[in-house]
């Protein structure tokens, strides 16, 4: 397929997402099934157009004066992919798969370029829903628009090398056709930066090194918070929201397969992939606890470290799942903050005297981060915050790149740490 056909396909997929309220991945898959002639390169390019359109939905719509799928996809072609509007029209001529030619009005809008954006509201320039503006400014500070604009780019593909089975050099060698770079902050990470336009994401999970358990796909931010959590060999650790086990696996490696990690999740389906992953990674110090009445009772008061990788709005992962940015509602945020407060209270009973409670989210909203810690402290005065910047100095190399907050926590963002958005705060039990 040539570019005009790919643009038409992306318009079709976006329309399908809107009409049927479908998740992006499902709509793209559906399009692929109905259009079997399209190759892997076509599908990747169409996916990129769709995701790019959603990453900058508000600013694209502002420039175009419309948020219909055609306007958004043409905006990606011109604003993000650097196509010239007149040249696009020339390419559309005689191509039966092309969208309708750009109108004079559309061309004029591109002519005015992004100048009109300067005069518009912050939420549009930051490409976020307006109702989140006050929260983002409060949580991130005065440069929140710049920070959020950095979240409209494509994410890299990051890997964590599994030290239980391999090393960074060996994995890099196995994947050298993808030209991986060492991650800047996480000590055992490799990164394949995002490509532009129709670049395809490297398919690393078919590599022999992956099948042998030498590495996992894990954003560098997730690797950093796992390192900050500071689990040491021989400890007793509870991963209270283990899900598919991304943090469990990183923690097991940090503990050198010694001590014991208890991996629990209230959702059996989310926990299911952990069994295969633990096996492939060669983890021998993790016990999975399925969600049953009293499943964790024997751990009360015994844990050196309890990790809450809390259910959250996922606002830190907007680069990867930009559709969730526009679907988030105040009700969903309130539901998540309620769950987070309950989990913090629930976790307390497992932490032994002198033990550590680690709270993590992949959100950039203060309601889910610093506010949770501020509310927890008077409820549990027996805990005190361990300064996260100090932990950074002991667990990671280089100066603290993340943003600090008034409670002693850290916020990772694409602009500050080059990662997804993550929040980290650790508290010690003193009584
Ligand atoms: C951010 S995800 C965990 C991701 C996982 N730790 C990883 O690194 O791959 C949050 C998880 O919390 C779980 N969860 C939600 N409420 C919970 C509760 N009350 N107790 C335990 N787990 C819960 C969800 O099922 C979900 O799997």
Structure description:
The structure is a single chain. With 431 residues, this protein is α/β, with parallel strands linked by helices. It folds into 3 domains: 3-120, no CATH class; 157-217, Sun protein, domain 3 (Alpha-Beta Plaits, 2-Layer Sandwich); 220-429, 3-Layer(aba) Sandwich (Rossmann fold), CATH 3.40.50. The protein is 44% helix and 14% strand. The protein contains 22 helices and 13 strands. The chain has helices at residues 3-20, 24-34, 40-55, 57-64, 69-80, 85-92, 104-112, 115-118, 122-126, 133-140, 144-149, 168-174, 208-211, 220-229, 246-254, 268-271, 274-280, 323-327, 330-347, 370-379, 388-395, 414-417; strands spanning 157-161, 181-182, 189-192, 215-217, 236-239, 260-264, 286-289, 303-309, 351-361, 383-386, 403-404, 410-412, 422-429. A hairpin with a 6-residue loop joins β2 (181-182) and β3 (189-192). The chain is globular. The termini are far apart. It binds S-adenosylmethionine. S-adenosylmethionine binds at residues 240-247, 265-267, 270, 309, 311, 339, 343. One of its GO terms (molecular function) is RNA methyltransferase activity. Belongs to the class I-like SAM-binding methyltransferase superfamily. RsmB/NOP family. Keywords: Methyltransferase, RNA-binding, S-adenosyl-L-methionine, Transferase. S-adenosyl-L-methionine binds at residues 265, 309.
Small ligands present: S-adenosylmethionine
> What is the overall silhouette?
globular
Mind telling me the CATH class of the largest domain?
Alpha Beta
Helix/strand-derived class? alpha/beta
**DSSP strand content:** 5-15%
CATH architecture label of the largest domain: 3-Layer(aba) Sandwich
| Named CATH topology of the largest domain | Rossmann fold
What is the helix tally? 22
List how many beta strands DSSP finds. Answer: 13
The domain count comes to 3
Q: What percent of the residues sit in helical stretches (DSSP H or I)?
A: 40-55%
Largest sheet: 9 strands, mixed
CATH homologous superfamily label of the largest domain: Vaccinia Virus protein VP39
């Amino acid at each position: 397929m040539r570019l005009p056909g790919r643009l038409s396909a992306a318009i079709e997929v976006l329309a399908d997402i809107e009409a049927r309220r479908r998740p992006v991945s499902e709509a793209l898959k559906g399009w692929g099934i109905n259009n079997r002639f399209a190759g892997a390169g076509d599908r990747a390019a169409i996916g990129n157009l769709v995701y790019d359109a959603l990453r900058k939905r508000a600013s694209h719509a502002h420039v175009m004066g419309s948020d219909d799928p055609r306007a958004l996809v043409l905006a990606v072609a011109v604003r993000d992919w650097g196509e010239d509007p007149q040249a696009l029209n020339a390419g559309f001529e005689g191509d039966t798969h092309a969208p309708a030619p750009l109108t004079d009005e559309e061309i004029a809008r591109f002519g005015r370029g992004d100048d009109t954006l300067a005069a518009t509201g912050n939420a549009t320039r930051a490409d976020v829903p307006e109702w989140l503006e006050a929260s983002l400014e409060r949580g991130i500070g005065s440069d929140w628009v710049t920070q959020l604009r950095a979240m409209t780019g494509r994410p890299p593909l990051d890997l964590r090398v599994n030290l239980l089975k391999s090393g960074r050099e060996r994995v890099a060698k196995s994947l050298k056709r993808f030209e991986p770079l060492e991650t800047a902050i996480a000590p055992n990470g490799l990164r394949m930066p995002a490509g532009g336009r129709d670049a395809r994401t490297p398919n690393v999970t078919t590599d022999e090194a992956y099948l042998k358990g030498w590495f996992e796909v894990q954003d560098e931010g997730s690797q950093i918070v796992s390192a900050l959590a500071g689990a040491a060999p021989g400890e007793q650790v509870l991963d209270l929201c283990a899900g598919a086990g991304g943090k469990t696996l990183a923690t097991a490696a940090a503990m050198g397969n010694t001590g014991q990690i208890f991996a629990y999740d209230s959702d059996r389906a989310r926990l299911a992939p952990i069994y295969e992953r633990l096996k492939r990674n060669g983890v021998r110090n993790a016990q999975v606890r399925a969600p049953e009445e009293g499943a964790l009772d024997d751990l009360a008061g015994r844990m050196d470290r309890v990790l809450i990788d809390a259910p959250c709005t996922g606002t830190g992962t907007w680069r990867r799942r930009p559709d969730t940015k526009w679907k988030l509602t105040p009700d969903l945020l309130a539901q998540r903050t309620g769950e987070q407060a309950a989990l913090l209270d629930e976790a307390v009973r497992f932490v032994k005297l002198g033990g550590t409670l680690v709270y993590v989210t992949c959100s950039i909203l203060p309601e889910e981060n610093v506010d949770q810690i501020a509310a927890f402290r008077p409820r549990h005065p027996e805990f005190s915050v361990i300064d996260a910047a100090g932990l950074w100095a002991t667990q990671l190399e280089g100066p603290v790149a993340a943003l600090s907050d008034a409670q002693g926590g850290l916020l990772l963002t694409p602009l500050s740490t080059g990662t997804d958005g993550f929040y980290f705060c650790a508290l010690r039990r003193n009584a």
